[in-house]
Each structure stands twice: as C-alpha cells, then as structure tokens.
Amino acid sequence: MDFGAINPTILIASLMVAAVPIMLAALGELVVEKSGVLNLGVEGMMIIGAIAGFVTAVHTGSPVAGFAGGAVAGALLSLVFAFLTQFLLTNQVATGLALTLFGLGLSSLAGQGYNGIKPPATHAVPFGPLADIPFFGRVVFGHDWMVYASIALVALVWWVLRATRLGLVIRAVGENHEAAHSLGYKVNRIRLGCTVFGGAMAGLGGAYVSLVRVPQWTDGITAGAGWIALAIVVFASWKPWRVLIGAYLFGGITVLQLNLQAAGSRIPVEYLSMSPYLITILVLVIMSSGRGRAGLNAPAALGQNFHASR
Amino acid sequence: MLKLEKRPTPSTFWQYGTPVVAVLLTMVAGGLLFAALGKDPFAVIRTIFWDPVFGEFAFYLRGQLLVKAGPLILIAIGLALGFRAGIWNIGAEGQYIIGAVIGASVGLAAYPTESRWIFPAMILGGAFGGWLWAMIPAILKTRFNTNEILVSLMLVYVAETILAKAATGFLRNPDGAGFPGSRSFSSYKAASNPEIFAGSGLHWGGVAALVTAVLAYILLERHRLGFQIKLAGQAPRAARFHGVNPARLVVFCMGLSGALAGLAGIFEVSGPAGQISIDFNQGYGFTAIIVAFLGRLNPIGIVFAGLLMALTYVGGEMAATNLGLPSAAVQVFQGMLLFFLLGVDVLTNYRIRFFWGMK
Fold first, then answer.
1. Residues A98, B286: C-beta atoms closer than 8 Å
2. How confident is the model at residue B8, as a pLDDT?
3. In A, which residues are within 8 Å of B85 by CB distance?
4. Residue B335 and residue A97: Cβ atoms within 8 Å?
5. Which of A83, A101, A165, B191 is the most exposed place for a label (fewest CB within 10 A)?
C-alpha cells in the first residue's frame, strides 16, 4: 500500500470539511434526544435540506441563502414529525422512518432538472497572510465559514445544555417528563422546539453536502450520512464535544478511504467504500457492549411519548 | 380547542377504519401534490388506482400486481412479527439483496447442469443468505446490546456494495462481453422461476407469500410463540415474568424476517428480475415497512396492504408513461400514506374532544 501519495496536511484539512454535515446533523439530533425524542428521520431531513439549499442557492446565487433555505426546509419537515409524535402521539420509531422515506422521495421529486448544475461557490474565509503559514495555514485558516460555524455551534450547544436554564429544562424533560410536567413545564412544546432545532441542523448539514462537499445535486446524495449522524450521537454518549470528535473521526475515515481509492491502493474499491458503515457498526458495538441504557448515558425518557391525562 | 382523551379500551371500529381513512386522506393530499405538479389529479388517481384493475390493459397489469405484491407481502410479514415484539429490523433491503446474491450463486454454480433440485437449493440459499445477514444485528444486539435499527440499516449500504461487486465481478456473466450483470435465469431452465399460469403473474414467490401469511396468522393467533411476541411488545416486564427469553425472541424475529426477505430476493432475481444486476433491488425492503403498518402488523391485513401498495407501483408506472408523472412522485405518495396511517391511528386509542376557550 502506498501511503506516500497521501499528503497529511490535505488529509486533515479535507476531513474537517467532510465532517461538517454529520457534525451538524448529529449535534441537532443530540439536542432532540436530550429532550427525550428519538427522531430517526435525520436522513430524510438532511436530504431535504440538501435539495432545498441547492435550489435556493442556484436561484439566488448566494450560498448563504442556500444554507438558510436548507435549514428552513429541514425544520419544516421536522415539524411534521413533531406534530405527529407530540400531538397525535404516534410511535417515534415508525414516524422517523416515515420521515426518511418521505424525504428521500420528495427530494428526488424536487430535484428533477437540477442534475449537472454547479451551485455558487462557498469561498474560504480570507485570513490574509495567516493562510500562508505552513500546515496551520491550510488546516486552521483555510476553510469556508461553515467549518468554523459548526465548531462554534458545538460550543454553543454545550454551553446551553450545561449552563443555562433552558438547557436544564430540556434535560429535565428528557430525563423524566412526568416530573417536568408537574413542575409546570410544557413537555410537548419543549420537545417540539427541540425537534425543530434538530431539523434545522440536519437541513443545514444536508445543504453543506450539496453546496460544498460534493458540490452538485444527485438523487440520494446524502448516502446514509443521516444514519451515521444518529450513530455518532450514541458514540458521543450524548455529549456535544464528543460529537465533534466522532464527526472528525468519521470524516477522517471517509476521506482516507477516498484517498486510498485515488492512490490506487491494492484493497478493492468495494471494501474501501463499505468501510465507513462497517466502522460505524464496530464503534456502536464497542460503545454499547456490557452497558445498559443508563451506562450509555442515554436520556431516561428517550423515545417515550408523553400525554398529560387529567 | 382540541383535546385528546384516552379511551378505556381501543376502539374496534377505528382499528379497521384507520387504514381506509388514511388511504382516502392520502388520495386527497396526493391529488393536491399532483395538481401542484401541473397534472390533472383525477386522471392521475384514476390511472393509479382504477386502471390497473379495471382499465384497458388490466389483463396484463393485474398480473403485474401479483409480481410486485409478492415480495412486499413476504418481507412485510417478517418485519411485522418483529415490530410487534418491539424489534426494529429496518434493514430488510440488505437481507433481500444478500438472499438474492447467495441464492443466485447457488444456481450459477450448478450452471449448466439441468436438475430439478437446483431451484429448491437456490431457494434455501436465498433464505439462508437473508437469515445470515439478519443474524449480524441480532447477535450484536443480544451479545453487545447494540442498537439493531442502526446496525441493520448500515448493513443495507454494505449489501449494496456487495451487490455491485457481484454484478461486476464474481457473478458477472462470463459470456456477457464484459457487461455488468449475471447470466440470465430465464434462459437457464433449472434455475428459473417462471409464472405458474401464463399471464397470471403468479410465480412461486407469490405462492410463498400467501402461504406465509396463513402460517404467520396461525403463529400469532394460535401458538404460544405468537403470544410471547405480542406480550413482549405490549408489556416487556410482564413478558419477562411470563418466562419469555428476550434474547431468543430477538434472534427468532430477526432471523425469520431476514429469511423471508432473502426468499423474496431469490424469487425476484430468478423470476421477474431475471438476473443479478447492480440495481435489481427496487427498494422493496423499505416499502415493506409501509406495507407492514398499512396492514396493521396483521398477516392477513398485510396481504391486502401489499396488493394496494403494488397498485401504487403499477399505477405509478402507468401514470409515468401516460401522463408524464415523475416516478419519484409515487415514492412521495407512499411516504405520505405512512404519515397519515400513523397520524389517524391516534383515534384507535384516543377520543378527540372539542371545547371552547382555555381549560
């Protein structure tokens, strides 16, 4: 195998880009799950964000508008999920699956006629001379603004969940909805808010896939990134900074296997391209083995619906 | 304002009523969608739901209904047993693919021998392949407490890569001038799965689906294991006191649904699809999830649900060729159906009360 053809500086720089979509989606899902809701529709919301962001950016010519459009579309789709699970008390697993199936169909319907178009470019933030420093210039100062925004969002979510009243309420609702309800908190409304935040983040991540990572539109463009994001939340034990680590780890694996393919490694292409999924399974096994739900640090009321019956 | 009030017992009327209401609501919402796409909604709905059964080409399309419904029913019954027990196998698509690849390998290994044992061996290979692929999440769940939803889904992507490798590599037709795809099963008599009555659309997969539905119904209603499945889903704690071994139930439900998905895969590849190709799988494994819920996780209900879902496939293709409806619109339509089903189901367990002002 020839590792010599792979430049470590470029590898690290590109893994930071590759990690952004799953990091954003996983961070959103973390907040959703912290409030006790399991939304398995991440993949569907991501791909809707990808097409909505792409269409908006192509028509307005502005990638910023594209990202906004992706986030709004993801949030709208998650609103359907929130309405069904919080007010019609549907099964969260089944509704999440429905969201993914619906999102995949709707994105491919909406994306007709957008194949082969190039979206407006998202440029690197101009850091001036800083970008010319060897290694650090490329790795730290050579990215577009979304890479920095995603890291800032991790810090923000960490701070909100840990140090604010809002964060405490979200965690209370997710750990014990009966107790939160008897303290006078509107369990269903708080969960609705968290779900919509998660949808917006997944949509944002999806928009990053179609606007920066790929960048173009093809059917099924997210290729399971939403499911990997769900796995990263488990990997991260529901802790925001570990989401960052997890996303960089998976970004690294994705980029490395693509580089190995390009470098003409002797490992067959098929085995390389299935590796991110296999490693996800492996990580899940290592994280879950020998531990119950509490040991994993999962929110106690995760996946349970709440209905205030008087 | 609206308020939900829990019913003392689930409503029998709505248990049967919800699928019907959901289908009607989907037709309305789908009609709006088709109108937004610039198509005449009434023409589209008629093309999808009426023409395949009673229209001009119904003599051919009715057969197509059975062709599509067979694998959907077969997969959905397996999934429904698991869903009832609270075991979420959502990677049926992967088990379907692996079943097809292993079953086809068995048949192709014997090429060109003609023997009546080849087809049964392929069927066994298909069921074994699906079972094997489902055992991965099952064992990981029971041994390491790993989430079966994520693992079974990840394995779909792995299975798709293996399928690509099979079609372009180890199962590629050596006489195929380098084109991807295996040898054709329709021209290899011992391994083919033709229609049992010409023009009926019924092949051995359809027969297997109907037999499985009856057997699954008996299992659920008359057998101890069926009772344990239902109990584990509704009251996991009570199930443990009753002596249900959760690990064994996971292995049984996952294995059975995997084997049924694998069966559907090999019937499809040796019959309607005709060969292993990169994209012979049409997402049946995912659509079957909708079929399972539409049939209210009941084997007999699933038979009707599978036929109805097949109608949207066949009618959707008709609408695509005759009215220029994008094929993805049918996928959206199917997704909406699941939303409405889940949403309307609230009426089974809750009553909606209207009241004025705040309370």
1. no
2. 81
3. none
4. no
5. A165
Q: What is the mean pLDDT of residues B66-86?
A: 91
Could you tell me the residue ranges of all domains in chain B? 64-325
Residue A127: how many CB atoms within 10 A of its CB? 14
Chosen for mutation from B88, B153, B348 (greatest number of chain A CBs closer than 10 Å) is B153
Q: Which of A234, A204, A88 is nearest to B349 (CA)?
A: A88
Residue A304 maps to a domain: no
The whole-angstrom separation of Cα B154 and Cα B136 is: 11
- The region that residue A290 occupies, defined by phi over 0 for left and psi between -120 and 50 for alpha, beta otherwise, is left
Would you call A4 an interface residue with chain B, using a CB distance cutoff of 8 Å? no
Cα–Cα distance, B294 to B296 (Å, whole number): 5
Q: Match domain B64-325 to its CATH number in 1.10.287, 1.10.150, 1.10.3470, 3.40.50.
A: 1.10.3470
Q: Could you tell me if residue A35 is inside a domain?
A: yes
Is the confidence at residue A252, as pLDDT, over 90?
no
pLDDT at A52: 93
Give residue A52's domain range: 3-289
- B359 falls in which pLDDT band (50, 70, 90)? very low
AA identity, residue A236: A
CATH classification at residue A70: 1.10.3470
Do B155 and A281 meet the contact criterion of CB atoms below 8 Å apart? yes
Nearest to A84 among B147, B154, B343 (CB): B343
Contact across the interface for B339 and A84, Cβ inside 8 Å:
yes
* ipTM value: 0.84
Residue of A nearest to B80 (CA): A94
Provide the domain count of chain A. Answer: 1
User: Quick check: B68 and B265 in contact, CB under 8 A?
Assistant: no
Q: What percent of chain B has pLDDT over 70?
A: 98
Task: Decide if pLDDT at A294 tops 60.
Answer: no
Contact B342 A89 (CB under 8 A): no
CB contact under 8 A, A284 and B146: yes
Which residue of B32, B135, B158, B330 is the best one to mutate when testing the A interface, meaning the one whose CB has the most A CBs within 10 A?
B158
Residue-level pLDDT at A197: 95
Q: From residue A261, how far is each of A16, A42, A151, B101 by CA, in Å? A: 19, 28, 29, 25
Tell me: pLDDT of A251 over 80: yes
Dist. CA A258–CA B43, nearest whole Å: 47
Question: Full-prediction pTM beyond 0.90?
Answer: no
Q: Is residue A273 part of a domain?
A: yes
Question: Is residue B97 predicted with pLDDT exceeding 90?
Answer: yes
Asked if A277 and B157 come within 8 Å (Cβ–Cβ), the reply is yes
pLDDT confidence of residue A56:
93
Distance of CA A218 to the CA centre of its chain: 19
From B87, B130, B89, B133, select the one nearest B249 (Cα to Cα). Answer: B87
Chain B residue numbers touching A277 (CB-CB < 8 A): 154-155, 157-158
Q: Which of A205, A210, A261, A208 is nearest to A228 (CA)?
A: A205
Whether residue A301 lies inside any domain: the answer is no
Residue B268: CA atoms inside 13 Å, Cβ hemisphere, count? 33
